[in-house]
Amino acid sequence: MDKIQLGEFIKSLDQDLEIKEGKQFVEVTVPSSKLFSLASQLRDREEAKFDFLFCLSGVDYGQDLGVVYHIRSTVYGHAVVLKTRTSDRVNPILDSVADIWKTADFHEREVFDLLGIRFSNHPDLRRLFLDNSWGFPLRKDYVDDINIVTK
What we know:
Elements: H1 3-13, E1 18-21, E2 26-29, H2 35-44, E3 52-60, E4 65-72, E5 79-86, E6 93-95, H3 104-115, E7 118-120
Parallel strand pairs: 2-5, 6-7
Antiparallel strand pairs: 1-2, 3-4, 4-5
């Protein structure tokens, strides 16, 4: 599938998705409540076979916290970007995709450790790099009282 066909296919799975053709990837903005279902369909549907999560990044958008997922089909060679957000900065929770793509396991732990986004149903969600005395240093509102991190 080319990018236009890929966008149309994904739109056929859920009409409420926002789909944009980026320079390199089709970008799909997904409500957090629909992320797990869409990700499962993209992996399992014969037309898509998105069997490889090759990048998962946490993002602090200021008002919202989000996660960006880059997925690829090793069968067909196409790739898309899924983006989701939560506006809850106090207790941010998104669904884990670690049981869909095993590579998400450590990526989600890293996002939890550095941004504080919790992933429901994650098999082992605990800090990866920092101990509990740290806050979440990649948040824009992070305060570094002893100036370990400088801007």
